[in-house]
Design brief:
By secondary structure, this protein is α/β, with parallel strands linked by helices. The protein is built from 10 helices and 8 strands. Helix 1 (30-41) links the parallel strand 1 and strand 2 (46-51). The protein starts with 20 loop residues before the first strand and ends in a 5-residue tail after the last helix.
């Protein structure tokens, strides 16, 4: 593999989000904030941003609107700020309920928020390991909770136009320990991910992104792409504060590598916005890298990978129903 990453072309000028409502989670910095600016530049009408603290969201809102100075105020987008903490099931379900109660339509959901940890950390709200909780489980549950609104929006659009449900993933999923040492049939995914004795620091992030990739692949089989296009994407190595929780020596090494190899958030976020709004039905169930579908690694298509995908799906639906009873039925999945 070449040391330098391939270039990312500018977003197509034809990409137009006028009349669209777009949700971007984790919008306070990095890729999320940069994605918001791209949507703004491509005429988004309503932009919904989520942050862990509302005060941060108001700052981001002001910064985004500042980009509109000198333009036609009649076309100024509406920006809504919602609180969302992905370490908490109750926060996820409360956010989804508030969104559906206050927002009549949702054309695009870009689930960008995530973390990068090397040390073992448990969510105080759920008891789950934090990378698993934030990067995978909360995003999966939120996806399923948002499906009815995304579907109804598509069906009400004339002519019918599919909505997008897009989750930020990573090619690093191929480094997951699970691909070399699959979870045994007698152990649940939740048990394996919450076993501190067997965790591997450098695999936590890759494990969580493997689950995202498997979830997107499975969810796409239960959702008609004519109503909701489900995909994920890898923005590549980007200069963000994702690794802010690492020790100082590791952060310094990371900054050196990023300074040489990484894309800027503005460039990396082009991949996010293209996947979540421009990729089309051919991206359904796929991962996009730059603007192309990336084939899955061979393990995913093996018998072990297929069993793991089915197992993860069952446990995810169980977690959804446990934390939001009746949501499986309301999601109207093709089960």
């Amino acid at each position: 593999m070449l040391f330098m990453q391939p270039s990312v072309p500018a977003l197509p000028a034809s990409l137009d989000f006028h009349g669209k409502t777009v949700l971007v989670t984790g919008a306070n910095s990095g890729l999320g904030r940069a994605a918001c600016l791209h949507y703004l530049q491509h005429n988004v009408s309503t932009l919904i941003i989520t942050v862990r603290r509302l005060s941060e969201g108001e700052v981001v809102k002001a910064e985004i609107l500042a980009q509109w100075e000198g333009k036609n105020e009649d076309d100024q987008p509406k920006i809504l700020v919602f609180e969302l903490d992905l370490s908490s099931h109750s926060s996820v379900t409360a956010f989804a309920a508030k969104l559906k109660a206050e927002v009549p339509c949702l054309h695009i959901a870009l689930l960008n928020a995530g973390i990068f940890l090397l040390d073992w950390k448990v969510s105080p709200h759920t008891g789950n390991e934090m990378s698993f909780q934030v990067n995978y489980l909360s995003n999966a549950i939120l996806s399923l909770l948002l499906l009815p609104l995304l579907r109804s929006t598509a069906e009400a659009t004339g002519p019918p136009t599919p909505s997008y449900l897009s989750i930020v993933a990573s090619q690093k999923y191929s480094d997951s320990r699970i691909t070399g040492n699959p979870i045994s049939e007698s152990t649940t995914v939740f048990e394996a991910c919450n076993d501190e004795k067997t965790f591997q620091p450098w695999s936590l992030y890759a494990d969580s992104k493997l689950f995202v990739r498997l979830f997107v692949k499975e969810l796409a089989t239960h959702v008609d792409s004519s109503t909701v296009i489900v995909n994920c994407m890898c923005p590549g190595m980007v200069k963000t504060n994702l690794a802010r929780s690492l020790s100082l020596p590791l952060r310094l090494v990371g900054r050196l590598v990023l300074s040489v190899r990484a894309r800027s958030p503005e460039v990396g976020s082009r991949v996010l916005v293209y996947a979540a709004g421009g990729a089309g039905k051919h991206s359904h169930g796929q991962m996009l890298v730059v603007y192309e579908n990336l084939p899955v690694i061979s393990w995913i298509e093996s018998k072990e990978g297929e069993l793991m995908q089915a197992k993860l799906w069952r446990e995810t639906l169980d977690a959804l129903e446990k934390n939001s009873s009746g949501s499986i039925v309301s999601s109207t999945l093709h089960l």
